[in-house]
Each structure stands twice: as structure tokens, then as C-alpha cells.
């Protein structure tokens, strides 16, 4: 079917046997598979057929189905009134909002605009001054550090020299040669191992003094 906007499946009141055809499988499947919207209005309001569940809209009566498809003149007039009221309300609201917006607009004088621009420039200049001073101060500290590097290196070298001298003094004071110079001697066996016990005295083959080594035969 062409040029069909909607299909109404309807029947006036009747017995259950009269309405059973609207629950037949072939009818229900046809309604469910219809590409055109289907409205049912079978029997009276308490009557529910299977076709009602397959339809796009179920009206309680045939009259209700017709009214759902073709609205009455009164409902059209009411709808037009409602649309007109909404349009009027919306227009009044937009006009009121526009008026309030216009009332809030403040027109600045040229002098005020110039003063505001001057204030902004002054703020920018002050901010740039802070940034430049901070950069210059940081650069000055870095230059002072670089200029002071020779002194820092000199102090480090002096401390290293003192450390080396102190280590040399400690080495000299702890060296066994100094001990030998104070009158001590070192006895060794044939394997040049130091003898530190009288029980091994018979194995002594050399004695080291501060001024040299004496061999015992």
C-alpha cells in the first residue's frame, strides 16, 4: 500500500468468539511485521486481544483509535492556543532578558578607557621590573660565585696539601725505622720472617738495626 500514513485495526463490541480472530497468529504477525504504524481499537476497553500487544498503539475503542489518528477540531484549537501562548511567553521572556542585558551595559568614557589601559601598562611594567631585578640578582650571585672560584680552589688545594703533609708526618712517626732509631732491633729467620719469641731464638739468622742488618752465622 502506498500513501498510507497509518492502519487502524478495529471492531466494535462483541462476544469473545467474535473477537478471537484478532488473536490469530497470522493477524498478529501481520501487524507486528507492518512497516506502517498500526493502531488497534478492538471491542471495548476491558477487551485485550493479542493483536493489541503487536500494534504500535492500542486504543480502548474504535472511536478512540479514530480520535488518536484524526484529532478533533476542539483539540486542534486548544493545541494552537497552547502553541501561541508558549510563543508569546518565550518572546516576552527574550525581550525582558534583552532589556535587562542592555540596562547592565556600562558605556565607558574615553578618559576612563585610557586610564584603564594606563593602569594595565603600569602593572605590566611593575611585573617586568620584578622579573628583571630577580634575573639580575641571580646573575650577580652566579658571577660572584664564578669570581670566587679561584679562592675556593686555593682553599681546597691548601687543605689537600695539609692533609698530605699530615699523612706524611703520621707515616714517619709510625714507620718502623723510627722505632729502630730509638734502640730497637728486628730479628728474622732464614725465610726473612720476624722472630718475636725466645723459643725461636735459635733460628735467628739476621738482626736489623737502624743503621743496617747484621748476619749471624
Could you name the key traits of this structure?
about 220 residues, mainly alpha, 3-stranded antiparallel β-sheet, 8 helices, about 10% strand, elongated
First CA to last CA: what distance? 142 Å
Biggest sheet, spatial arrangement of strands:
1-2-3
Q: Could you say which structural class the secondary elements and strand pairing correspond to?
A: mainly alpha
Multimer state: single chain
E-strand count: 6
One letter per element, helices H and strands E, the order comes to EHHEHEHHHHHEEE
Backbone CA Rg: 58 Å
For the residues shown, what is the average pLDDT? 82
Helix fraction? 55-70%
Helix count from the secondary structure assignment: 8
User: Strand portion, in percent?
Assistant: 5-15%
| Largest sheet composition | 3 strands, parallel
Based on Cα principal axes, name the global outline. elongated
Q: Which regions are unreliable across 5 or more consecutive residues at pLDDT < 50?
A: none
Brief overview, please?
The chain has 217 residues and is mainly alpha-helical. It is 59% helix and 11% strand. A 3-stranded parallel β-sheet has the order 1-2-3. The protein has a 3-stranded antiparallel β-sheet with strand order 4-5-6, with no helix packed on it.
Task: Give a structural overview.
The protein is mainly α and 217 residues long. Among the domains are: 7-70, no CATH class; 176-215, no CATH class. The chain is 59% helix and 11% strand. It has eight helices and six strands, in the order E-H-H-E-H-E-H-H-H-H-H-E-E-E. It has helices at residues 16-19, 25-32, 50-54, 62-69, 73-104, 110-147, 149-174, 176-181; strands spanning 7-11, 38-42, 57-58, 186-188, 206-209, 212-215. The strands form two sheets. It has a three-stranded parallel beta sheet with strand order 1-2-3. Helix 3 (50-54) links the parallel strand 2 and strand 3 (57-58). The chain is elongated. The relative contact order is 0.05.
